[in-house]
Prior knowledge:
Blueprint lengths: L4 E5 L3 H13 L3 E5 L14 E5 L1 E2 L2 E2 H10 L8 E5 L5 H6 L4 E4 L4 H12 L1
Parallel strand pairs: 1-2, 1-3, 3-6, 6-7
Antiparallel strand pairs: 4-5
Amino acid sequence: MRNKKIMIADDDPGIVDAVEMLLEFEGYDVATTVSGATVFQLDQLPDLLLLDIWMSGEDGRDICKQLKAQDTTSSLPIIMISASRDIKSSAMEAGADDFLAKPFEMDELLKKIEALIG
Length: 118
């Protein structure tokens, strides 16, 4: 069985490093980017995308909407993350499969990932 691949798109290197280490420890293959545009240039889709809402110059909600609108990426599970707790509804309206407010507990993140890609 191949390992599930998760992409982390977040412009906060501290979050990227911490989450990447945790997910690799849990047996996931992890790819990271600090630019949302990179998500559209993937040769191979991840099994799940962990997407920050506010990245430098880009809105993760727009990226999410674009991914959900394309046939090739519409079924890609996306968990949106943000330091702002009051924008969960806009993340879900953009098509996110789940939402997590920063700072978050790693156990909570793992449960959400497991629920989406088991």
